[in-house]
Amino acid sequence: MDYDFKKIIIYLEAKGQLLFGRQFKIYDEDREILFKLCNYAIRDFGTCRKLGIDPNKGILLSGPVGCGKTSLMKLLRCVTPHFTPYELLPCRNIVFGFNHIGHRIIEDYGDGRFYCFDDLGIEPMGRHFGKDCNVMGEILLSRHELFLNSGLRTHATTNLNAQELEERYGARVRSRMRQLFNLVAFDKDTKDKRT
After folding, report:
1. Which residue, of 1, 9, 57, 182, is most buried by count of CB atoms within 10 Å of its CB?
2. Helix residue ranges, H only, 43-103
C-alpha cells in the first residue's frame, strides 16, 4: 500500500468525527505525534529508525489529561485495517475484573492477543479475598515475557511520567517497560481538548 501522511490526516479527522462526534478535530500541534504513530502503524522501518522508534516494540503514549491519547490509539487501528487490530481496554476495568474473578484475569491477558491498556497507572490496587495485588504490574510482566518469547507487542496510554510509573509499579516493571515500549509523549503543556 502507498501511504500519504496528508491524506491519512484527512482520513483520521473524518473517521474521528464519525466515532467521536462532529466536534472532533486533528490539532496542528498533534501532527508530530501523529506522524510518529502513523509511521509506526504502517511499519515504515526507515522513518521509524530516523524517529528513534523500534517498530517491533509496542507504543506507550504518554501525556496530560485530555490531550487525546485514547482517541488517537482508537483511530490508529483504522490506518492499517489489514493488520490484526489491538483491543483497547481501560486498566481500571481489568482491575475490577480481578477484584471479582481473581488471578485468572492476569492469566487471561497473558494470551496471544494484541492489547492497548488505557490509562495505565491510575487504576486502583486489586484486591481479591483480602489479598492486594498490583494487577497491571503483573500483567505487564506477563506481556514482557510474551514479547521476549514471541515478539507480541503491547500498547498503553498513561498520564504518568517515567518516575511516577516506577513509583507505581517498581523498578523491575519499569525496566521491562523500557524493552516493551517505545515512548511517544505529548508535550506536558498540551491543552485539555475536552474543554
Report:
1. 182
2. 45-51, 69-79, 91-101
pLDDT one-digit tens code per residue, 11-28: 999 999 999 999 999 999
- Gap between the Cα atoms of 12 and 5, Å rounded: 10
Tell me the residue type at 155: H
- pLDDT, one tens digit per residue, over 144-154 is 999 999 999 99
Predicted TM-score (pTM) of the model is 0.93
Give the three cell numbers for residue 107: 492469566
Cα–Cα distance, 147 to 160 (Å, whole number): 23
Contact 147, 179 (CB under 8 A): yes
Q: Cell numbers at residue 38, please?
A: 502513523
Cell of 167: 513509583
